[in-house]
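REVIEWER CHECKLIST
Item 1: Sequence provided? yes
Item 2: Single chain? yes
Item 3: Sequence as submitted:
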Amino acid sequence: PEAPQSIPPLEELLPLLDAHPALKRYDDEYEVLCARLDLEHANAVGDAEWFGGVSRLNEIDETVFKVGVAWALTTNDRNEGAISAAARRLEQVEDNRAAVRLELERELTTLHKQADGALENYRSYAESLLPAANEALALTEEGYRYGKFELLDVLDAQRTVLELESGQTAALNELRLQLAAIEGLLSASLAEPAEAVRATENPVHAEDGEHLDQAVEPATPEEHNHD
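Item 4: Structure as written out by the authors:
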């Protein structure tokens, strides 16, 4: 069977973590706290007082319209307590988000490493072990027809091929499990990475992503004729 396609590089998968619900929750809270901090800064400025009036200047026989604005000067509390509290909460959210993302990065890195190992194991069957076993089986069957090998030799060669095919199937299943775990963590299909990366971008935490390779497609082991 043909070898599967390569797994997308880890650096192309990391931006997809920003779509994780745990991080989206912090992003939403971040936006709310930014608005609250802006409000507290606005509250530190005194309310404006508008005034106006009309005056008659008899000396020059003119009517004058007057308009003005005044702010109360604050000498003590300028809402510094509320501003400081909002800023601390904003910093706490940033720190918490960074900690959660670091943990998600570690988990993704582990899954990616395991998937790479499963892919290498699968390829060893598809590209090396099974081709060699099939070639040995063909030579043994040919030799048996010419009386060079016993039937037991043919059966042993056939059993070896069947065992390797079973091992290849197990390796492919393990690879599928690892890829499914990665997609579950990212909440995205590895076959549609570009759209997933664009969906995760936001004004606070935006990262770039590139096209990812498609996920591994299952390969059907070759059938063998047995005497």
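Item 5: Key structural point noted by reviewer: The chain has one domain: 10-200.
Item 6: Recommendation: ____
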